[in-house]
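User: Can you model how pantoate sits in this protein?
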Amino acid sequence: MKVFNDKVSLQKAIAPMRANGTIGFVPTMGALHQGHLALIKQAALENPCTVVSIFVNPTQFNNPNDLEAYPRTLDADVALIKSNIGENVVVFAPTVSEMYDEKLSTEKFNFEGLDQQMEGAFRPGHFDGVGTIVSKLFELVKPDRAYFGEKDFQQLQIIRKLVSLKKMQVEIVGCPIVRTESGLARSSRNQLLSEEERNQASIIYRVLNEVKKRFSGTNIAELKQYVEESFASHTLFRLDYFEITDEATLHPIKEYDKQQNYRAFIAVYAGDVRLIDNMQLN
Ligand code: PAF
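Assistant: Here's the modeled complex, given as structure tokens:
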């Protein structure tokens, strides 16, 4: 399997493949798990050439401790792709200076409000950092299709907006959340949880399922109260936010309108580890 660290070699390797058909692209920050593998598998099924980037992007972290603690497991990631998908994937694992030259500058975007709530409110500048690196990677790889998980649903909608703002010729493919048997959404951060936290984290999925069940018949304030109460006395988890929004605009729901699609979003702390999840409601 080919692993490239610099842009020029990557572009040289991809150029002849472009002539054979479409290029599928899966941008990641490494510490790969079943969720990433599902994206890579789908890309490999739908495109003759698949590129996976592994790059922990500093400009999307607003907490230096979080950036430092983020797991970096390149050798294991490459081995995982090799054993699960095969040799036929191109991996791009650049250094920070390869992607940013000398200055870690971030492009400022107008995501038309998609970045103002939930993860955007909690992590100011985060989505400018994501937009910056995804733009750089798209310009480099020039994929026909790029694959993103719905676990980061706000990010997925923002990337769709980015592509339309920049008029990029790439199809954004959203892929379903991959969960453990207990329902915990797969995430690189799960490996930072203690065993007990991991065992009990299925509460997040159970609460989201219950919200979905109650959604059409219960008023929103009562639903929010139900979620708050579910976490209020929990010894391991602390609710950060719970929100129900319109799926397209990500504006918080005011009144249930059958014509719209809604999604519930949740962020929960287990100690210092922040877990996010979401679920389509109707
Ligand atoms: O979802 C991620 O892993 C990252 O935000 C992404 C899209 C690879 C950009 O760094």
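A couple of observations from the model: The chain has a mean pLDDT of 95. Residues 126-141 form the longest helix (16 residues).
User: Helpful, thanks.
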